[in-house]
Fold each of these.
Amino acid sequence: MKSSANPVIRLVTSALSFRIRRRARRRNVTYSFLFMKASGDQLRELTPLIEADRIRPVVDTVFSFESARGPAGGPGIDRVPALTLQATLKGALTRQDPRLSLFLTETEGGRQAGRAFLERLKERTHHRDKDISLSAFRAQLKAIRQWGRPAPSDLSER
């Protein structure tokens, strides 16, 4: 699968799923998530994986349109920039990629998975995201923090 999401978006979604991933680890369950846009190519790529039971889709909750909340706010979103900067500082001090401490556990298995992940990233040569500039990175973190501060908007009345 090719990820076209901005690295900061990937970082945010991983940070937001930290609690559920920790709970899954405690129960010896693998947790992952996937965001897709409507794409025939991606669906054709996923279909054999689902049919071979390599991927098992699970729908936890179905929400009605009336109960939808958004477009901004929510618990923990305003903490994402601080977590990102903390991981970046830790990465600089330990000379490790910050994604390791953001996305993976501090266990031997987590470290092995992190090394394997970084090696797979090196293999990708097509459709790679461009490196983000420092000013764009700071602007995105500021926007995420501001976006996460208000209470979730209630869209049910619209």
Amino acid sequence: MTIAIDTPRKQVGMGQLSVGAHDDQLQALLGSCIGIGLLWKKGGRCGLAHCLLPEAPTLDGSLGARYVNQAVPSLLRLMGVRLADYADIDVVLAGGASMFGGRNTRLQVGRQNVEAAQKYLERCGLHVGFCALGGCHGRQLLIDCADQSYAVTEVAVSAQRPGRASNPYAGAIHGHA
């Protein structure tokens, strides 16, 4: 007899953020967007932001994740993290791929998102424990709040022969905070 336990999985869409605890799982599918995952063992919570762009033209203090510089403080606030707790936060970064090709810097949104995430996390004094960034393929970031772990799976587009299905998941990386 097999018993399946259905774990609540929250899909975090573009420009969204989510906070979970206990058995929650937070997941984002990323290309040039960047996923910022915060794992807080002592607080028993995790957060995930799915950021589209590096910096908002102006910040008004509202919660959100469209921009990296908006997402970092928003996640910390929603998770209830105080400045004294920052040393206990483990950060996972994924995404930031070059999905549009070419050398036009305006189209290098992935690289700009990576630079912004590193800059704003460093400003907060948050330690990035794992990065899966850049390249030219998408990634899926999954954060499991139950055991404070993460998994990053590469999503590759491969040429396939007519009539044959392919598995888009090229490889996976797993870790614990």
